Every structure is written in structure tokens, then in C-alpha cells.
Amino acid sequence: MSVVIRLARAGTKKRPVYHVVVADSRFPRDGRFIERLGHFNPLQPKDSEARLKLDLEKVKAWLAKGAQPSDRVTRFLDAAGIVKRTPRNNPEKAVPRKERKAQAEAAAKA
Quick one: CA dihedral 68, 71, 73, 79, positive or negative? Predict the structure, then answer.
């Protein structure tokens, strides 16, 4: 059984609030979960303490049991200093489209 730490959406239409939960990876996003670890409110200012609340002791316990955090939860845990996140690297994304086409044509000719 693969256990993940992820966000489950709550709140109303256009006013999202997310619960940070531990769930079986086969369960739906907003479905059944094992334990609730905190909440995240993206509508709060980024420097507000009410934006993210996590029970770090529970998070550490679940990570020790083998739970895998989702990408967004990994960002939260990296900011808290619990998990080290490796930055993603997609150099193709940084190149403007016209230059990518010119490079592809030059590569095709060569």
C-alpha cells in the first residue's frame, strides 16, 4: 500500500482551502484519508502565519513510516526544513519558442 501526504481540497467555489492529509494513493483526492496533518489557505498573504498550519511531529512520524509527500507538500516541508527538495530543471522551457524552432531546424540540417 502506497501512502502519500497530499492536499485535499475543501472550501467553497472560488474560495479554496486545502487539508494536508495522509492517504492511500489509490483513494480520490477529496476522498477517504488516514489522518489530517494540517491545512493550507492559498488566499492568505504569503507572510501570514494562518496560510499554512502543519503538525510537524506527525509529519515526521509519517515520513519515518515511508509516506511519500506530493510535490506541493514537499515544497512546504522544504520551507519548514524537514525534507530537502531538489529543484527541477527543464532548460527547454527557458528558451523562447522561435529560437527553439531555429535550433531544431539547424539540427535537422546537420
Answer: positive
User: Pseudo-torsion of CA 36, 3, 5, 75, nearest 10°?
Assistant: 170
The neighbouring-strand residues paired with 50 are none
d(CA 109, CA 7) in angstroms, rounded, equals 48
Please enumerate in sequence order all residues whose Cβ is within 8 A of that of 101, keeping only pairs 6 or more positions apart, or say none: none
Chain segment 1-12, per-residue pLDDT in tens: 699 999 999 999
pTM score, whole prediction:
0.78
8 A C-beta contact, residue 73 and residue 85: no
Per-residue cell: 51: 496560510
